[in-house]
């Protein structure tokens, strides 16, 4: 299992590409309009919001941590934006404020996880409720819909001859940025090293606490950006915005080949997984398959995604002696 | 002093190991080990770290399966699948770091796996507590069985573990370095228990690397070296020198080339009144440029803790650290590395290296910033650096892109050296640098350390390997129970004087 | 620095850990009393027999779900499919009862228990034998089970009029002035508490959660223990789902949505450690009562419902922080390393 680890991933990315093409081919048999440029670009809008969350979550997962409060940060962001809109703050000022609020929420998670060493799963499960509760408390019960058109621009407008959604460009920039961060900079290298062995990383002079807090803050900032897109797409802000979308996000990250225990994976895999899930969802929509079935498919893919390494390990075990059982017991 | 019972009858063996072999993937963990263990006798099992002792214990107790050979217990070949099965057949093991369940009571820890059952299959708590008390009494402990294990001292853990081993009808008791974290008094108490068990006919396998324990306790000795069986002899036929020779594979003198008189410069690392509450207290010393200062003491005396405090792992509660004339308050490894101090951790595989990563990524992790332009890591430069470093430190590998876990222990250690020295430190702390590596690599490591000191590095060498400590060091500090108890110049130090100082107890002559 | 022999060192840490571990439930009770008094002072409607019965009734089912969650938490795992399991069990049982008018009480009890057990076993297989991290595995089955409920239901709900009347009335009946629902819940919590306390299997749950490495060295089969913990969790969710269906009468596809959060909050507030090995189901049940009390008090004080979500979330974070402090004390006392 030693040296092959690195070479497995491109293989997985290839498999994702093939799966995307297959899902696209299947979709094109369902609707004659599927392969039109408008429809292809337009359909990407469906996964840009979870996509932004997935980019941030991928960074957190590379550390061996998790953040399931991200969808709730969207709600905090949309409600914050509604307040700023009501106060007449121009969008150019409001947008960075919302992103900063998202980053603050994320940094709060990071502080609890990294500085206080609380288990990230339980903490973000708690803040998932707490953030959404805050959004509800701060927002109004009926929601806010009086957004000025400028506020909707990011999530609803198109450029390049009215074909490419602005939000897609935002996503592409974010994806490229996070990819670059994780695979080309020292920060990304430190993230993966923490995910593989936080002790050794700390001994090697990595500021584990700082790296973790920054990762959570980044994920929160991306959730803040997703809130801007949300408002553009749906034109409303309420405490229950994006409730339940974390499943899609976690599925994309896991299916994209990020090791949920940290230390391994690529951002390109995550982006490909997003396209795959988006294509499948789009196709299911064209085939008139309802939301619940889509959820089941999503859940199934998630389980399949996490069973993949286990299955690979089982196959490896059959062909050659496994690593010691002790190592596995300690890994738990 | 213990007296070995009069010789005449040697009892028939209860446990026979025949040509045991085991591999983990491509790594050979054990090869062709055969010896007999007899009731009423203590069988010493010695060898350097990594010689294969632990693997052997795991095979006997059913934690690992042997690939070759057989274990014969009381005339029947056995192959246990779990330690519970082994315990039911009368084989139990006690490990150096206790393996208890901290949230449960002592009684439950002792009864686990063989609960006395009351009505409707429930656990009969009263019986459980009574039995636990009984077994604790047999090991001379009056701990309250109802107490939670969390909060017990290491010695108390050790006694609970032995009591647990006794709760099954133990015929073969394996003790894996049981005294490594005990004070001499505690160790003596433990050995009194072991002797009484032996006298009642239990076969004992004692793993230790304290040769005086072999002399005091054992009737037979088996030596493992480089995962192979070297010899099994009656204890009376071997003396210390012979034992060491068997363990390391060549006479003691040949091992270490003593360093020529070094040229020693200014103080590089000065430590004044350093304390960490409850761990070590008021430690002062200095290490000069070009000097190798050895630090000896028993395992658990606080040496690694002192080193880790200096390196910023756990900040001190009092005292000063001066590096190259500048005072620093150690807060984190990052800060100390930036100040020019590097620390090679004792547990290389856990703290020293990121095992599933490549050699390159391991070596460059602490210096990524200096290899980056505008935060972008220069990957070609990084590779060049890793290649020249692995050449300098003679890492045997097909490529610097190899995953570290695929290397041998010695080569891993060389990667760790390369990593810490890439930070260009002025002072280097080595914590058991030859722990668990083969003889060839060991000699290379020694040569490397000497060379580094000759180049003007200040080196603090922590080692439990006395001959190594004596040969390498220009000066030796001895730590006992968290305090600096003695300092020897290079020519005054002998194995005996260092051992004596190390075994000195607090509350004694301090 | 004293002359005392070192064997008896560090009496302080030992006592602290023991006291805290033993007194956590007592702490929850004290908190509950303080909370009750506070609400009682704030509004005179709180401390009426009728209102307290309402609190107890709403805590009753949550207490069972919290027990289910606690069993899994003790093994150092987690189940976020608790709500979905309850929902699926409730829907399938109600649907079966509605379409089979001659259904007997035995069937009404047996069907949900069987379904719950199977659902729990699926989780157990994934986590224990598939080695999938508990969160991911149960997040997946959470959506699978809930999605399956939707698909099966075709958007329909089972109204109370289609259920056998005795099924609905049985939970509202009273024995000695107390609703059966509450008595059943107390009985179930008591039985589970006793099973965990007195039976070897229960003790193994704690052992596996307390120190996985020690369990391995000892020879315990952790996989099997974890698997059965999930099975037990599913079984209890079956009971909880059935009681919920009987209590509300009209069974919709979103029944018990979000209960994974409430059950977890209850357990954690009740002193069950998310890092395994400590806590009791009695504590978890008490935690459920705390949550129900807060809910009720907020309603009486006319605090908007949204606060509930916030308080629940904040309570989880606070409880986890307390837990981490205790774990840190244990670590320090056993000489473990920090990082």
Give the amount of beta strand of chain A, in percent.
Answer: under 5%
In angstroms, what separates the terminal alpha carbons of chain C? 28 Å
Backbone CA Rg of chain C: 21 Å
Helix content of chain A: over 70%
Uncertain segments of chain C: 1-14, 335-339
Largest sheet of chain A: 2 strands, antiparallel
The number of helical segments of chain C is 13
How would the blueprint of this fold be written?
The complex is a heterotrimer of chains A (332), B (510) and C (339).
Chain A (H helix, E strand, L loop, with lengths): L4 H26 L6 H7 L1 H18 L7 H17 L4 H25 L4 H19 L10 H8 L1 E2 L4 E2 H19 L1 H11 L1 H6 L4 H27 L11 H10 L11 H20 L4 H29 L5 H7 L1
Antiparallel strand pairs in A: 1-2
Helix pairs in contact in A: 1-13, 3-8, 3-9, 3-11, 3-12, 3-13, 4-5, 4-6, 4-11, 5-6, 5-11, 7-11, 8-9, 9-11, 12-13, 12-14
Chain B lengths: L14 E10 L2 E11 L4 E5 L6 H8 L7 E6 L2 E3 L4 H6 L2 E4 L11 H6 L13 H14 L15 H14 L4 E5 L7 H16 L3 E5 L3 H7 L2 E6 L2 E7 L5 H9 L3 H4 L11 E10 L3 E9 L3 E6 L5 H8 L7 E6 L2 E3 L4 H6 L2 E4 L3 H5 L6 H6 L7 E2 L2 E2 L1 H14 L16 H13 L5 E5 L7 H16 L3 E5 L3 H7 L2 E6 L2 E7 L5 H8 L8
Parallel strand pairs in B: 3-8, 3-9, 6-7, 7-8, 13-20, 13-21, 16-19, 19-20
Antiparallel strand pairs in B: 1-2, 1-4, 4-5, 9-10, 11-12, 11-14, 14-15, 17-18, 21-22
Chain C lengths: L10 H32 L6 H26 L7 H18 L5 H25 L4 H20 L11 H8 L1 E2 L2 E2 H19 L1 H11 L1 H7 L3 H27 L10 H11 L11 H20 L5 H28 L6
Provide structural commentary.
Chain C: It is a multi-pass membrane protein. Chain C: This is Autoinducer 2 import system permease protein LsrC. Chain C: The complex is composed of two ATP-binding proteins (LsrA), two transmembrane proteins (LsrC and LsrD) and a solute-binding protein (LsrB). The complex is a heterotrimer of chains A (332), B (510) and C (339). Chain A is 75% helix and 1% strand. Chain A starts with a helix and ends with a helix. Chain A is mainly α and 332 residues long. Chain A has a single domain, classed as ABC transporter involved in vitamin B12 uptake, BtuC, CATH 1.10.3470. In chain A, α3 crosses α9, α3 runs antiparallel to α13 and α12 crosses α13. With 510 residues, chain B is an alpha/beta fold. In chain B, strands 6-7-8-3-9-10 form a 6-stranded mixed sheet, with helices on both faces. In chain B, β19, α16 and β20 form a beta-alpha-beta unit. The two termini of chain B are 26 Å apart. In chain B, 53% of the residues are buried. The C terminus of chain B is likely disordered. Chain C has 339 residues and is mainly alpha-helical. Chain C is built from 13 helices and 2 strands, in the order ααααααββααααααα. The longest helix of chain C is centred in the N-terminal third of the chain and has 32 residues. The interface between B and C is large, with 44 and 40 residues.
